[in-house]
Specification:
By secondary structure, the chain is of the alpha/beta class. The protein has 2 domains: 173 residues, 3-Layer(aba) Sandwich (Rossmann fold), CATH 3.40.50.2000; 178 residues, Rossmann fold, CATH 3.40.50. Helices cover 46% and strands 16% of the residues. Strands 2-1-3-4-5-6 form a 6-stranded parallel β-sheet, sandwiched between helices. The chain has a 6-stranded parallel β-sheet with strand order 9-8-7-10-11-12, with helices on both faces. Helix 6 links the parallel strand 5 and strand 6. It is elongated and about 70 Å long.
Length: 364
């Protein structure tokens, strides 16, 4: 297929996030297809308005030229967006199939322009992709035709993120030795629930050798340090700051349990968090929350545990089970790796996306 790919962020400027997600899809689609991508300008204020008009005109002109030369079969946009909706309208005039792919905030936002962009995409798109069935329900409630929507869960590189034969070496390098290691990783923001990860330690004070590694930077860092001090668990929490992408597999492999107590702050919610997928790919059991699409990433009581949001005591109970039952922890670790390989790996994800694009082409 000759695919014109529209992306809001590209290439990656940080390891996780939309840019990384778009990059991995583009990279793997190029294996079997001819892919040309166009990146939405990252400008602000009034320049954003005029920059985006120029972007729409430029892409529209390119589509017309490629259509004339028979160099485009389909247009595929990762994220809903007003600019992409205008391009979708032009693609329809040219008789080109259009596929929209909702990811995270573009699905959840209540901003009137974002809502308008989504609803326009529902009408203009031949097929719609989203990352979880939780998101699919949101789209259906807003009026997206059920028959157009496909759910594609996941997106992790299981060749990079995998169980290591040298976890003790990584643990020694981090200075955690024989401790029972909890790991929480991501941008230090409210919806990540790192405060609940710290509060969990208050219910595990009797376990002397437990330690929580917090990896990441963000606006909540000072608050989290103060919280650990006020709860008198500061000796059990280590803030590792930003860690390079090359070091992440080692960090995951040093952990006994990955803790991801996500919470919803209004419409500021998780999509399908990469860190949870990476932890499972590395064979680390996950203790997380029944938040947004998490039940679709973590199989409760099989590859990890899921508890209610904002419930440190429930988190502590599940962590204690894994601490006290080594066989259960090993079994969940195996199940976590298997789930990542079977459902979440990029090979499976992009094969599904490619099939959906083919379906859109056939529909036309």
């Amino acid at each position: 297929m000759n695919i014109v790919l529209l992306v809001a962020e590209f290439p990656p400027t940080m390891y996780a996030g939309l840019a990384n997600y778009s990059y991995n899809i583009a990279k793997r689609l190029k294996t079997n297809n001819n892919v040309n991508f166009y990146i939405l300008p990252q400008v602000s204020s009034i320049g954003r308005y005029f920059g985006n008009i120029k972007f729409i005109i430029d892409v529209g002109r390119k589509l017309w030229e490629k259509k004339t030369r028979k160099e485009v079969d389909l247009v595929y946009a990762i994220t809903f967006g007003l600019q992409f909706s205008f391009i979708a309208f032009f693609a329809k005039l040219l008789g080109l199939p259009f596929v929209s792919h909702g990811v995270g905030l573009d699905v959840y936002s209540y901003d009137p322009l974002d809502v308008f962009a989504r609803k326009a995409s529902y009408f203009l798109s031949d097929r719609i992709i989203c990352g979880t069935y939780f998101q699919k329900r949101i789209l259906e409630i807003e009026g997206a035709p059920k028959e157009k929507i496909s759910v594609v869960v996941g997106g992790v590189d299981c060749k990079i993120f995998k169980p290591s034969t040298r976890p003790d070496e990584f643990r020694k390098a981090l200075g955690v030795g024989d401790k029972f290691v909890l790991l929480a990783l991501g941008r230090l923001s409210k919806r990540k629930g790192f405060d609940d990860a710290i509060r969990t330690l208050r219910h595990l004070k009797d376990i002397d050798e437990i330690v929580l590694l917090l990896v990441g930077e963000g606006s909540e860092k000072s608050f989290l340090k103060e919280l650990a001090g006020s709860l008198h668990v500061e000796n059990k929490v280590r803030f590792l700051g930003f860690v390079s992408s090359n070091s992440l597999p080692k960090i995951y492999n040093a952990a006994d349990v990955f803790v991801a107590p996500f919470k919803s702050i209004g419409r500021d919610m998780e999509g399908f968090p990469l860190v949870v997928q990476e932890a499972q790919a590395c064979g680390v059991p996950v203790v997380s929350t029944l938040n947004t699409g998490l039940p679709e990433l973590v199989e409760n009581n099989v590859s990890g545990f899921l508890v209610q949001e904002s419930s440190p005591q429930q988190l502590a109970q599940k962590i204690r089970e894994l601490y006290e039952n080594n066989d259960l922890r090993k079994k969940m670790a195996q199940n976590a790796r298997r789930r990542a390989e079977d459902l979440l790996n990029w090979r499976t994800v992009v094969n599904k996306i490619e099939n959906i694009l083919h379906e859109a082409l056939v529909l036309r």
